[in-house]
Amino acid sequence: MKINLQNLPFTLKPFILSLFLSLSLLTFLSLQTPRHTKPTILPPDLKIRPGYSSYNAYINLQLNKTLNPKLRKIWTTRDWTRKVQVFSKFFENLKLRGFLNNHSKALCVGARVGQEVEALKRVGVNDSVGIDLVPYPPLVIKGDFHYQPFDDRSFDFEFSNVFDHALYPLKFVGEIERTLKPGGICVLHVSLSGRTDKYSANDLYSIGPLKELFKVSELVEVRQIDGFGLDTEVVFRKKKK
Ligand SMILES: *[C@@H]1O[C@H](CO)[C@@H](O)[C@H](O)[C@H]1NC(C)=O
Ligand SMILES: *[C@@H]1O[C@H](CO)[C@@H](O)[C@H](O)[C@H]1NC(C)=O
Ligand SMILES: *[C@@H]1O[C@H](CO)[C@@H](O)[C@H](O)[C@H]1NC(C)=O
Hints:
Blueprint: H1 12-32, E1 46-48, H2 55-67, H3 69-76, H4 80-96, E2 106-109, H5 115-122, E3 128-132, E4 140-142, E5 155-160, H6 169-179, E6 180-190, E7 202-204, H7 208-213, E8 217-227, E9 230-238
Parallel strand pairs: 2-3, 2-5, 3-4, 5-6
Antiparallel strand pairs: 1-7, 6-9, 8-9
Helix pairs in contact: 4-5
Bound molecules: 2-acetamido-2-deoxy-beta-D-glucopyranose (3 copies).
């Protein structure tokens, strides 16, 4: 059908013109606001701490904490029993909720001396290992959580309580999603109330940013916890497809 503007009645012209203008405006707006893509910039409830001149500078600061002999002594002696007990309770609870079982292949991300790995083994999840910048054999092997030393789809379950140490949260989460099997579970313990540590590399104020960072997983549970200064447990499940 051909519309010839010249032949239309005089009164219809403004109507056609405004229809044309609104359609152009709608087209313009729909191009401006992509509806199905997630934002690629970090959401405002997640702030990266400034001040790292390079990735090496960041790694060196992290190493400074991890290698601190006084802290290592405390982690492996005074802290050990209490932390293993508390982690065991967390993992028993996750088992009851169906997120973990004795046959799960489990990874603890940023495990330091591996108290959580020990806890997993105690509750019967024998095939468990941790990674950190400094190894603590046999529980923890060397690995940077921004570049996990594992193949895609290696684990059924991953746990971390060091999200605040990630300089690149998108990479931290991306690596977890890469190495989880489809249907695999990721449990994060985070602080939403500004736990401050000079070694933290980011500050998280709500779980909103986590929902954006996990691209191929769904949020399954959020609950309040009392976990060594961390207040929130978040559970994601990697999608099957
Ligand atoms: C950590 O930093 C402190 C103070 O800047 C320094 O004295 C110490 O040698 C560093 N430790 C390590 C293990 O790098
Ligand atoms: C899992 O392992 C624990 C510890 O070895 C054991 O007590 C428990 O019965 C096991 N659970 C199942 C379902 O086999
Ligand atoms: C885990 O290790 C314990 C102790 O070595 C053993 O009794 C248990 O059968 C093992 N469980 C599995 C699922 O392999």
